[in-house]
UniProtKB/TrEMBL annotation:
Keywords for this protein: Cell membrane, Membrane, Transmembrane, Transmembrane helix, Transport
Species whose genome carries this gene: Dactylosporangium sucinum
Identification of the protein by name: Peptide ABC transporter permease
TM regions (residue ranges): 41-62, 103-129, 141-159, 165-183, 210-234, 240-259, 271-295
Family indicated by similarity: Belongs to the binding-protein-dependent transport system permease family.
Subcellular location, record wording: Cell membrane
């Protein structure tokens, strides 16, 4: 019996001899760009990239020398001085560009050091258990009660010409304990999951189980810890410069705030002296938080699909699902009419 292509198309539409493969991209290809397609993550990455770019080329593209003094004292923002000048006529915009490098170096280096230590110690303690867990947990408890900022003040006062790397190293070595405790708790809940037990039963090595089975499920927590450490390191660096502990000869955003506070810029109405540095700090924290939110939505299907679900009611009305709300649809035709009367008994 001969079957014509037309009969095949009648039985299975679109699958006959003349059917062509779809030109639409597959889901696998779309998943590669899902993180970048997230609006929060894309905005945060762009903002962070601008900060990194300014940290690299900032001192070179600054229109003036940050230490150069000019007769234009406490000049407001203008075409020549975008962010105005200080009490010595120094260009504040050039100072902010030159100070971005120190802030970014301290924040990123301290964040990387603290994140690596928290992952190594927290995940190892949670997965191995026993004596290793007890020892590493005791080490985490010791570092958890060490005050980071007073220790940084002591180190910077004891070490002559303590630079940004010394400050970043001290912050990173004293800021990993909290993240390690959180990762240990999450690892304890993951190590007995079915897929981990299956990998262990199949003979997988311990490092492969930790690297490929457990760590992908801890991405959001690791990213959150990194963001928190970077923000803490940036604020610590700025605080040290603001209170005059670190060297005020090297420019960063805290140094600008130090001179603005010491010269009473607020009392003199020189708002341009401290507002740009404060906005730079706030925007850096915003960019890191947006990246963290994007990572949360990328690794969590519940957050990724929240607010996007829609359904159609019996009357044809479309209702959008929202996080934290349960939509209640009332059929207007079958709903009873409620008659409301005032005090005199008149219906309205």
């Amino acid at each position: 019996m001969t079957v014509t292509p037309s009969s095949i198309e009648q039985v299975i539409p679109g699958q006959g001899a003349m059917a062509q493969p779809s030109a639409k991209p597959t889901k696998a290809k779309r998943k590669r760009f899902r993180f970048i397609a997230n609006g929060k993550a894309a905005t945060g990455l762009v903002m962070l990239a601008i900060y990194v770019l300014f940290a690299i080329i900032g001192p070179w593209v600054a229109p003036f020398d940050p230490d150069e003094r000019t007769p234009e004292v406490l000049s407001p923002p203008s075409a020549q001085h975008w962010f105005g000048t200080s009490h010595l006529g120094q260009d504040i915009f050039s100072q902010i560009l030159a100070g971005t490098r120190g802030v970014m170096v301290v924040g990123l280096v301290a964040g990387v050091i603290a994140t690596v230590l928290s992952v190594l110690i927290g995940v190892t303690a949670g997965y191995l258990g026993g004596a290793a867990d007890e020892g590493l947990s005791a080490l985490s408890n010791v570092f958890l009660v060490i005050p980071a900022l007073p220790l940084i003040i002591i180190v910077t006062a004891a070490v002559t010409n303590a630079g940004d790397l010394i400050v970043a190293l001290v912050i990173g070595l004293t800021s990993w304990a909290w993240g390690a405790r959180v990762l240990r708790a999450q690892t304890l809940s993951l190590r007995r999951r079915d897929y981990v037990e299956a990998a262990r039963a199949s003979g997988e090595k311990t490092w492969r189980i930790i690297l490929f089975e457990i760590l992908p499920n801890l991405t959001a927590i690791i990213a959150s810890g990194f963001v928190g450490t970077v923000i803490f390191a940036v604020m610590s660096e700025i605080t040290l410069a603001f209170i005059g502990i670190s060297s005020v000869s090297s420019w960063n955003w805290g140094t600008i705030l130090f001179w603005a506070q010491s010269q009473q810029a607020l009392a003199q109405g020189a708002w341009w002296w401290f507002v740009p540095a404060g906005l730079a700090i706030a925007l850096l924290g915003t960019s890191l938080s947006l990246i963290n939110f994007g990572i949360d939505e990328f690794v969590s299907p519940r957050l990724r699909s929240s607010g996007t679900g829609r359904f159609r009611t019996a009357t044809g009305e479309r209702v959008k699902m929202k996080v934290g709300f349960t939509p209640v649809v009332r059929d207007r035709e079958s709903a009873p009419e409620i008659e409301i009367k005032d005090a005199e008994g008149v219906a309205r």
